[in-house]
Specification:
Elements (H helix, E strand, L loop, with lengths): L10 E7 L4 H13 L4 E6 L2 H14 L6 E8 L4 H6 L7 E3 L3 H11 L3 E5 L5 H13 L16 H13 L30 E2 L6 E7 L4 E6 L4 E6 L4 E7 L2 E5 L4 E5 L4 E4 L5 E5 L3 E7 L6 E2 L3 H9 L2
Parallel strand pairs: 1-2, 1-3, 3-5, 4-5
Antiparallel strand pairs: 6-7, 7-8, 8-15, 9-14, 9-16, 10-13, 10-15, 11-12, 11-14
Helix pairs in contact: 1-5, 4-5
The chain binds ribulose-5-phosphate.
Length: 305
Amino acid sequence: MSQKNADHHRLKFVAGADAFGCALKDTLVSHLRSLNIPVEDLGTDNHYSIGAKIGQIVSSGDNSGTEIRGLLACGTGVGVSIFANKFPGVYAATCLTPADAVNARSINNANVIAFSGISATPNAAVETLDNFLNTPFKSPCPASNSEPWPENIQSFLDKSLTEMPKIGSTNPNPNPNFSNSCVICDLASGREFTPVDIMPGGSMKIVRESPTAAVVRFSGGSVEPAHHHSYGHDVVVMKGRKIVWNLSKNERCELGVGDYLFTPGGDVHRVKYLEDTEFFIRWDGGWDIMLDEDLATALRDLDQE
Ligand SMILES: O=C(CO)[C@H](O)[C@H](O)COP(=O)(O)O
């Protein structure tokens, strides 16, 4: 059984669902509010977007000391978890039973819970959510036969909060052209620009991996359709001019030589290159890119500007 923890006053939830999970999410949001737990309900979107939005908010945290947790629901509870888990510091767990939620809190310190809108009944889902609320990390749980953890597992759990965030933050397969022994020795020479297949007109020379640093070139007139990255990135323009629309924040800026821009992880942005442009870019973690629209949509929208 879960341990009761009535002190929810420093807790806030952000919630969202896709169409398959929407009704269940509404039930669970009402339940949280009946417990006087504040909830920001982001409503319904496709499971890629809603999982990423909740993940981004939980990852960003809250500087007032309030703990932010996420509640997600889709058809299976799996897709939304995968996307939320792309963000650092997010531990999203799909919980199909009340026992899953006790295990996910006790063993994994999960901070996002994902439900299956298809298979969960409202009553079972409420019980599952209550367990997620009331189970402290490292408490006895079904996986420990409801007994305190043995010493070796307790020690693993104790270390996991500091060890887990490091996983994936260093490149497990460093390029043999690099020496990783010290920063000065990470000399990258002789690297080539390679075309960025999904961004016509663009080419990129990666000079360091995870955190990833690169020099990027785009030919004048190129457009990058709206996209986002898991990690925030710094850009310094070395040549040319570009316009960046941050669609998440409804902001537009024009960057010329020497200008700097930071774009947070998850922020959707579209870019147009006014001239042949070259810039240095550095992501806070590994490089990835998720397209949020196709090129035709970007060009059509820019035409209407
Ligand atoms: O990742 C990339 C590969 O095409 C782009 O170089 C990068 O996305 C350009 O910077 P921004 O994300 O600010 O548009």
